[in-house]
Write a structure and sequence with these properties.
The structure is a homodimer.
Chain A: E1 4-5, E2 28-34, H1 37-47, H2 52-55, H3 57-63, H4 73-86, E3 94-102, E4 111-122, E5 127-136, E6 139-149
Antiparallel strand pairs in A: 1-2, 2-4, 3-6, 4-5, 5-6
Chain lengths: ~150, ~150
């Protein structure tokens, strides 16, 4: 099934978000969604990125090492943002930064799981640090780090 | 007008992409697109991120410092990817990494310009390094750095 939230937010802030003091190092959340041709087309429409690598099988087969179309890397990245905005810390959290290392291509039919884990809590600034990654069949396709500011009490 | 490509790719690789040896430090490209309520809804649909901060004016007004809904930060980030995939280096370039520092919120009605500039060319690996930013009315809303691998001859 596509778009399932694996772990729902269960903090006491509005929208079931977590306040800073409800977070702890090692806390995890994830979100899984299938990438489809329709999703790739929708992402092309909303981003303006109609690069033939994503939309034209012939071009992608001939001019990339991937043998066919690949999804926009930012589509997988958006699933990381979904975990942050929907689950941990959840609604009201402010995105401070995100690094993205694209490790492998994602294709239509791949089921992507975005995982985030709290690696540090910076009390003075109210920031939570996360490691982030996306997996397809257990293989890392995208990884990085992020900083979020959870909602304040 | 939304979705205009300001500088078209003019390299000699397929899709008017630039080969590595056609790139030079200081080379720039940009892409401008208006963020709309429909675009925010479309991004929520494709990413699965239906965080009320993006979709529910009442929630966003009450529970964020922004006074109303803001766009997904990854929507602006996707415009940076659009410049890379469509213009410089253009189709066939492989995204290696991207850092994103979210500096200010973007709202429906804002016209976002994503700008990229080549800061270094790593001949040994065939990598091009870029500074990247998104602006609204001349104000930086998102900035970072990126590495791309342009198509090979």
């Amino acid at each position: 099934m596509s778009g399932d939230i694996i772990i729902k937010g269960a903090g006491s802030a509005p929208g079931n978000a977590y306040y800073f003091d409800e977070l702890e190092i090692g806390q995890k959340a994830s979100f899984t969604k299938e990438v489809t041709d329709a999703g790739i087309q929708a992402f092309a429409d909303v981003s303006g990125d109609s690069n033939p690598v994503h939309l034209d099988q012939g071009f992608a087969a001939e001019h990339t090492p991937f043998g066919g179309c690949i999804a926009h890397g930012m589509l997988s990245a958006s699933f990381i943002s979904t975990v942050f905005g929907m689950v941990l810390p959840g609604p009201g959290a402010i995105y401070i930064n995100q690094s993205l290392k694209f490790r492998a291509p994602v294709k239509a039919g791949d089921v992507v799981t975005a995982e985030v884990e709290i690696t540090d809590l910076i009390e003075k600034r109210g920031f939570a640090q996360f490691s982030t990654r996306c997996l397809v069949d257990g293989k890392v396709v995208l990884e990085g780090e992020a900083t979020l500011m959870p909602p304040k009490r």
